[in-house]
Amino acid sequence: SEQEKEIIVEYLYVACWAKRRNKQYNESIRLCDYAQTVTETEYDPRFDHIKFLAVFDIWFERYGYNYSLLKNASYSIDDPIKYCLESYKGFGIYCSKFTEVEYTLEALENSLTYLYALKAKTTIITGLENNQSKLMVESSIEKANEFLNKLKERTHSNNNYWHEYPEYYHTEALLRLVEI
After folding, report:
1. Cβ of 134: how many Cβ atoms within 10 Å?
2. What is the dihedral of CA 85, 86, 92, 97, to 10 degrees?
């Protein structure tokens, strides 16, 4: 029945989240993929959100701030960006199904600003050897600013001011540093 499918989806969502929080990232990702296929329900952006967080956790734990490792990295910052974008698009389309959607969209806009700024920063640090790298930095900064502006519009239109969300200042500071 439809109600049973909804219960299964919620169970799988909590299981995926718990596995990620328990640092079982690959199992969380596999379970998310399974959940998105087995339930045969409408697309659920929460699973891409968990995959974004899990892939970013893998990337950060493996490479962290050791930028010398990034030149030969098996994971790219593009991997978490991909899932974060999918989740962002999904929450924008299916927002009526979920609670706290505005805050989720804010968090995803903040994450996308951060990820694109981090992509520009890692590209700069690992070396701007050619024009393609320079274009990637410019494109990443442009996308980061796009999501930062969306975040500012959303927070101000909802009467949510930045002093309540210090992590947004951190994200903007990183972006401004990369732009220099």
Report:
1. 13
2. -140
